[in-house]
Specification:
This protein folds into two domains: about 90 residues, Rossmann fold (3-Layer(aba) Sandwich); about 120 residues, Rossmann fold. The chain contains ten helices and eleven strands. The termini are far apart. Helix 1 packs parallel to helix 10, helix 6 crosses helix 7 and helix 6 crosses helix 10. Strand 9 and strand 10 form a beta hairpin. The chain binds nicotinamide-adenine-dinucleotide (NAD). The site of nicotinamide-adenine-dinucleotide has 23 residues, from loops.
Length: about 280
């Protein structure tokens, strides 16, 4: 029987610890707060923002949205961002990306205080994650994959992992988080040869390529643990992952669905990171 790794139980499991951490911070007089910074009003950003605000409300953690017009110029936005970053009662900042083309995203990413960089966007955070410095924040999505594997009791030490995708948002930081837990990680990408065989031989396969249903039964075996990070819309307008779920799920040991898998955990990770940031900033 295949175990379906749903996200909701992971979020519920995390809630208990988050509530304890929040209570401990409040005992010290610290009130954690997230700033959500959004330029324009892309439907995807608005959907994620609604989910994040709902999660934070459910956890009784403060969150405030700072919205800027799509046509804002770089200097004005950079000045406003610096002000938000400096607010003493803001402990974490989520900035929706990509920013509109007229804004210099790389420059903005470097402006954030690494201790407030709860979605791991700055190169300083990446350097910390890649060097194994635990004070550095990885982006929320790879961290959510780790929470999911932990919740479902998937051991990482000594296991072979194939990560499909090498973006700085998912694939690469995830490989580092897994390496930190003593997994042996192979990162696959568009130029990888024999990717199906590499994935089939791995104990754990994480699909983060952004290609609808690309992981077919040829990529898995009966012992595979498959985590699907992909969020795609197929040719029929249906939401689907990077894994051909219907064909693959009966063949593997564990699999996460899309929707209702990793995506349901990311806002809980965001909250976890805000509490960690509040503790670090007051430490
Ligand atoms: P990206 O486009 O930045 O990176 C995709 C990576 O996959 C690249 O490194 C590319 O080389 C690799 N790739 C593409 N096609 C491939 C193929 N056929 N074979 C092997 N490798 C291939 O995307 P991203 O931002 O890393 O996101 C990946 C997926 O995860 C997307 O579907 C995205 O929507 C989804 N995502 C989900 C969440 C979540 O909360 N669940 C968050 C962020 C991204």
């Amino acid at each position: 029987m295949t175990t379906i790794m749903k996200g909701a139980p992971v979020a519920a499991w995390m809630k208990e610890t988050l509530e304890e951490e929040l209570a401990a911070l409040r005992r010290k007089g610290i009130e954690p707060r997230l700033a959500v910074v959004r330029v324009g009003a892309r439907p995807d950003d608005l959907a994620y923002e609604r989910g994040a605000l709902k999660r934070f409300e459910g956890l009784d953690i403060g969150a405030q949205v700072f919205e800027f017009p799509e046509n804002i110029d770089h200097e004005t936005f950079a000045a406003a961002f610096a002000k938000i970053d400096a607010l003493p009662d803001v402990h974490g900042i989520l900035l929706f990306r990509p920013l509109p083309g007229r804004l210099d995203e790389d420059a903005i990413k470097k402006m954030i205080d690494p201790l407030k960089d709860v979605d791991g966007m700055s190169p300083f955070s990446a350097a910390k994650v890649f060097s194994g410095d635990e004070s550095g924040f990885a982006p929320c999505t790879p961290s959510a994959v780790m929470e999911m594997l932990d919740h479902y009791g998937v051991e990482l030490a000594g296991r072979n992992v194939a990560v499909v995708g090498r973006s700085m948002v998912v694939g690469r930081p995830l490989a580092m988080l897994m390496l930190r837990r003593n997994a042996t990680v192979t990162i696959c990408h568009t130029k990888t040869k024999n990717m199906d065989a590499i994935c089939k031989n791995a104990d754990i396969v994480v699909a983060a390529a952004g290609k609808a249903r690309m992981l077919s039964p040829a990529f898995v075996s009966g012992r595979s643990v498959v985590v699907d990070v992909g969020i795609n819309v197929d040719e029929n307008g249906q939401l689907c992952g990077d894994v051909d779920y219907d064909a693959v799920s009966p063949l593997v040991s564990m699999i996460s669905p899309v929707p209702g898998g990793v995506g349901a955990v990311t806002t809980s990770v965001l909250a976890k990171h805000v509490l960690k940031a509040a503790a670090l900033l007051n430490g």
